[in-house]
């Protein structure tokens, strides 16, 4: 059995242990009403599995939102707030978020702001949400194509990681979560990074351990810096350029929609290149990082005319201050540096490096 992880103000439980704790929690709290937030995909594929782990007399109102990052916005929040109000939710109600990162981000924000805050529980159903989105208390929504511009930091009462949920996940969604796990190795622990160098003998049981180790890495960072004053910024490695690429592709009808992890994978290659240029990151490790990431993620065509638009999005990055664009880079694997500035010429060189890589 995977042991629980203690976080700032809440605990993370795994698999059957999580449902045992949830049943105890609901009995202890005796909420006035229980609401479950899902999207159309998790309603179809995951809700019955969740309900099968609850008591026979368990009742809840299910609220379903449309699936996809494009619906992670304040309009969807308004709809959920309205439904909660119409269904008689009060300050003693609880919202259980069963879904991927969109559901846990948006549901956490809805719960944190409805009647100035009601209880919520996160049950992430995607690998990305398990190792990243639902851990650390960041909640929020996008502002147009700009990622996570509106939100609050607030933690759930309980977080349950049920890896059985992953059996319903398409391969591309599994890879999307893998990007954040790779990032945790790069910024924190070279031994953890090395676990991903050869997954040919990989078993599903190994995944449980890797997921828990990934959560432990993120939690250690968050516990030391819950409000993102310094160390927590390292979790944004790959995200400065990755988010800009993701936002540009999201709002451009001529571009394929990139999953979060697909965009972050590109961002990590670009920012590892910048690390070699600016921080002396070893060149042979740059080649290794590039090779490993491209073994998991397809190469994405980024045209020369796209670059000025992508760079324009950098000014919206949440790490920026006083008009400066701040990068998280690496001196070595497990040795990050925050608040690094560079110029557009080096950023363009990083895209040129990505472009010449063999698929």
UniProtKB/TrEMBL annotation:
Its cofactor is Zn(2+); Co(2+); NAD(+). GO terms for molecular function: 3-dehydroquinate synthase activity; metal ion binding; nucleotide binding. The keyword Metal-binding applies. It comes from the Bacteria. One of its GO terms (cellular component) is cytoplasm. GO terms for biological process: aromatic amino acid family biosynthetic process; chorismate biosynthetic process. Its EC number is 4.2.3.4. SUPFAM superfamilies: Dehydroquinate synthase-like. It holds the Pfam family DHQS_C. Residues 63-175 form the 3-dehydroquinate synthase N-terminal domain. InterPro entries: Dehydroquinate_synthase, DHQ_synth_AroB, DHQ_synth_fam, DHQS/DOIS_N, DHQS_C. Keywords: Cobalt, Lyase, Metal-binding, NAD, Nucleotide-binding, Zinc. The keyword Cell inner membrane does not apply. Residues 177-320 form the 3-dehydroquinate synthase C-terminal domain. PANTHER family: 3-DEHYDROQUINATE SYNTHASE. Catalyzes the conversion of 3-deoxy-D-arabino-heptulosonate 7-phosphate (DAHP) to dehydroquinate (DHQ). This is 3-dehydroquinate synthase. It comes from Sinomicrobium oceani. The lineage of its organism: Bacteria, Pseudomonadati, Bacteroidota, Flavobacteriia, Flavobacteriales.
